[in-house]
């Protein structure tokens, strides 16, 4: 059994709320607050019940302070959010909402040390996990802490599970999955599972380069992962669709090339126009589409055209479209399209892992 914040809400307690506040911060300012806004329903529900909230989060940059996140969250809530630099030394702040420093400042978080979890437990007498996006991983604040105090499932986390369960029970076919991004080693096992679940899997980015190389194509100096037996199986899979052409850079010059003409010094940085058209036709023939990861180096505008083209196809799609992943959502937000999608997940790896049938450690830790 899992306690849910949508049901029995703790009252007049100090509640540890694990959130995913891993947001882009530039010059001390939050550039995309999608993940911060996602936790607001849980915060407001807990505050209405008279609780004090102690927010816990990590940032992927182990040197990045969360002080600016506290300021930004305070502006969204309309009240100050106290910031605590060291959970082992800080006193008990009086503010209704408190944010502890980036948990990855301390090795005990990623190492899953019980001692560190006990340090965090000092700050509260109940726990809520509303960090769906990191619950496919283990960590002191995700898998150890909920065993030390009464634990609950957060509002957004429950909404995400409900959406994914509905998709798993009755996916309208054809089911199309789109994979991109640079997290090659972590996405490959999930891609292998989706090659069996989905009717067709469209692949771009470093993932595509890795499979292309396994199929015998040259990828030049492009980003690519390691070869292996699993990669060989993916390379043989008939429903894994790879780009036909690419935008490549070599010696400071960009060109559109078919995959058969990639040279040793070429670097693949985006899918080409023929690939965009092919991917678009396949997407439009699907009734359910799941997208995780950009298809090019979207940090540079000239290599974002392929991802933008696919986003526009999906935006007009009449079927069920689910978008997930920090890089994907950040891109959509940057180009002003994020609000055009009805179903946007706060998690990329967690979303795909759950859809592929994996257990989420953060969810399992909540079971009584």
TrEMBL record:
Q: Which InterPro entries match?
A: Phosphoglycerate_kinase, Phosphoglycerate_kinase_CS, Phosphoglycerate_kinase_N, Phosphoglycerate_kinase_sf
Keyword terms = ATP-binding, Cytoplasm, Glycolysis, Kinase, Nucleotide-binding, Transferase
Any single GO CC term annotated in Swiss-Prot or TrEMBL for this entry: cytosol
The record's subcellular location field reads:
Cytoplasm
Q: What class of enzyme is it?
A: transferase
GO MF annotations in UniProt: ADP binding; ATP binding; phosphoglycerate kinase activity
Catalytic activity reported: (2R)-3-phosphoglycerate + ATP = (2R)-3-phospho-glyceroyl phosphate + ADP
Q: Which domain of life is it from?
A: Bacteria
Which family is annotated? Belongs to the phosphoglycerate kinase family.
Q: What is this protein called?
A: Phosphoglycerate kinase
Could you tell me which species this protein originates from? Candidatus Sungiibacteriota bacterium
Q: What is the lineage of its organism?
A: Bacteria, Candidatus Sungiibacteriota
Q: Which gene encodes it?
A: pgk
């Amino acid at each position: 059994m899992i306690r849910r914040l949508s049901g029995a809400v703790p009252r007049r307690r100090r509640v540890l709320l694990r959130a995913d506040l891993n947001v882009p911060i530039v010059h001390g300012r939050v550039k995309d607050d999608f993940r911060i806004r996602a936790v607001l329903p849980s915060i407001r529900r807990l505050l209405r019940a008279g609780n004090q909230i102690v927010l816990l989060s990590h940032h992927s940059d182990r040197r990045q302070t969360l002080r600016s996140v506290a300021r930004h969250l305070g502006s969204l809530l309309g009240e100050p959010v106290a910031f605590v630099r060291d959970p082992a030394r800080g006193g008990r702040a009086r503010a209704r909402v408190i944010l502890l420093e980036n948990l990855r400042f301390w090795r005990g978080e990623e190492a899953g040390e019980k001692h560190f979890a006990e340090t965090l437990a000092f700050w509260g007498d109940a726990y809520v996990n509303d960090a769906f996006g990191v619950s496919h991983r283990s960590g002191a604040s995700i898998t150890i802490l909920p065993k030390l105090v009464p634990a609950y499932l957060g509002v957004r986390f429950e909404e995400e599970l409900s959406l994914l369960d509905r998709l798993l029970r009755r996916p309208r076919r054809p089911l199309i999955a789109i994979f991109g991004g640079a997290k090659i080693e972590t996405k490959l096992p999930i891609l292998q599972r989706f090659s069996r679940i989905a009717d067709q899997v469209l692949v771009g980015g470093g993932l595509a380069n890795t499979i292309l190389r396994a199929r015998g194509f040259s990828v030049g100096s492009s980003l690519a992962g390691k070869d292996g037996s699993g990669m060989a199986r993916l390379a043989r899979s008939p429903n894994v669709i790879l780009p036909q052409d690419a935008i490549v850079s070599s010696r400071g010059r960009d060109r559109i090339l078919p995959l058969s003409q990639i040279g040793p010094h070429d670097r693949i940085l985006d899918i080409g126009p023929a690939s965009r058209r092919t991917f678009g036709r396949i997407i439009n023939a699907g009734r359910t589409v799941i997208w995780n990861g950009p298809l090019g180096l979207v940090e540079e505008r000239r290599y974002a055209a392929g991802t933008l083209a696919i986003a526009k196809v999906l935006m007009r799609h009449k079927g069920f479209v689910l978008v997930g992943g920090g890089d994907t959502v950040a891109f959509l937000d940057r180009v002003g399209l994020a609000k055009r999608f009805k179903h946007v997940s706060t998690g990329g790896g967690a979303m795909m892992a759950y859809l592929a049938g994996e257990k989420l450690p953060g969810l399992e830790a909540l079971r009584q």
